[in-house]
Amino acid sequence: MKELGHWINGKYVPGTSGRTADVYNPATGEVQAKVALASKAELDEAIAAAAKAQPGWAATNPQRRARVLMEFVRLINRDMDKLATALSSEHGKTLPDARGDIQRGVDVVEFSIGAPHLLKGEYMDSAGTGIDLYSMRQPLGVVAGITPFNFPAMIPLWKIAPALACGNAMILKPSERDPSVPLMLAELLTEAGLPPGVLQVVNGDKDAVDGILDNPTIQAIGFVGSTPIAEYIYSRGCANGKRVQCFGGAKNHMIIMPDADLDQAADALVGAGFGAAGERCMAISVAIPVGEETADRLVEKLVPRIEKLKVGPYTAGNDIDYGPVVTKAAQERIFGLIDSGVKQGAELVVDGRGFNLQGYENGFYVGPTLFDRVTPDMEIYKQEIFGPVLSTVRSETYEEALKLTMDNEYGNGTAIFTRDGDTARDFASRVNVGMVGVNVPIPVPLGYFTFGGWKKSGFGDLNQHGPDAFRFYTRTKTVTARWPSGIKEGAVLNFPTT
Ligand code: NAD
Known about the structure:
Mean pLDDT: 97
Largest sheet: 7 strands, mixed
CATH topology of the largest domain: Aldehyde Dehydrogenase, Chain A, domain 1
Number of helices: 16
CATH class of the largest domain: Alpha Beta
Protein name: methylmalonate-semialdehyde dehydrogenase (CoA acylating)
Shape: globular
CATH architecture of the largest domain: 3-Layer(aba) Sandwich
Strand order of the largest sheet: 15-16-17-14-13-19-20
Bound molecules: nicotinamide-adenine-dinucleotide
InterPro entries: Ald_DH/histidinol_DH, Ald_DH_C, Ald_DH_CS_CYS, Ald_DH_N, Aldehyde_DH_dom, MeMal-semiAld_DH
Pfam family, one: Aldedh
Domain Aldehyde dehydrogenase: 13-479
Structural class: alpha/beta
Radius of gyration: 25 Å
Strand content: 15-25%
Keywords: NAD, Oxidoreductase
Number of domains: 2
């Protein structure tokens, strides 16, 4: 059985804790590897080595650091097929989707190559008589990234690239469900010229996370995952005096106005609801058609599109639309939620529970599922299902649809489909959600903007990637300087003013 360890000091090392977790191939249901779960002692050693490597990396000029990232991009592109295959085999998503996962991560590495510009401070000549004032952005030291299973390339890259570009060292604790790609990325970074110790990939579970939260060397933590864990890490990390940003779960609503192009809206809902088996934090899981007629026509258009979806293993290449969910437990939880939807009175229009694929009977597949006439009190509305299940909540008016979106505890992404500019503008302006699409169902901003949700989807002040990432991974120092020729007075006891 393949064993996956850690990437420490520029090389692969096996785990020594004696604890491991199974890594599945969700397409077949087989265990394909064991991943080491680090002990606190292993973690502390990795952190100590990172702390030793960090000052040298911080002293490397920003352009040279950026060059390492430039070479890293080239190497990722060289190994794209290998990375995508490893990713799909542990996650289950299709190969084209796996390439997209890697590419959206590369976008942020490319953005981070602009670090020399983004790290420039400000300068004011003669702010007072003979006094110059300037600010600089300095790295934090050793920082940590804790990442989820659903984007095993993109989210680690969103953490690694800006953190390293700013001169920090990083401890990356990826998801134990699909750890191969983060290890491969660390190896590529080493090949690209990153000094040993600057990026340490430590595999593990709650023990490793708690070790990160309590280790005083760790200055900042960037987390992405489910909301309960985000809340835990945010509160314990902040209580320990660290800078923390946590991005949590989601329940993304899409409003479909009566004037929308319903074919476009239906296509968008199918892509955003069922792509990656619904395991995206920006997946649309709730459709809100406005008006009974819009709802009837939308459902009519959705059904044949959904029934046509091809579900299967990533090895089928472009012939499938989405793959299995990540674990048996996830599959069973989703089936349980579909059962609850039926029990609570939602109309099950397309039922994915009976899905069966010859030769892949043990894979973790869930067929595409559509519910109509869902109400906000139902579990399928309240919970983040994180599976290929789309719920339709009918509303009478735009205001009612907006209120529903705004009352939801999550605020990651949302979208409106309409031809009316006034309505779209009103929605974008009033809705309390971090990322908004106008006729765009998955409004994930590009790498040079920032990404982050509101309410229970995001904790902390700064977003991921874009300029915010450079603020998160640096601290500002401001220097007020004058030289002996500029000092005219003797001792001054009053508070200095201009
Ligand atoms: P998860 O919360 O189970 O795991 C995320 C990370 O936390 C992993 O590294 C895991 O090892 C660690 N972890 C798990 N349980 C822990 C515990 N009890 N104590 C300490 N650490 C723990 O999330 P997941 O299932 O891997 O990912 C899916 C979730 O992530 C969904 O809720 C999804 O919406 C969310 N997500 C959010 C965003 C975003 O940007 N808002 C992006 C991607 C995924």
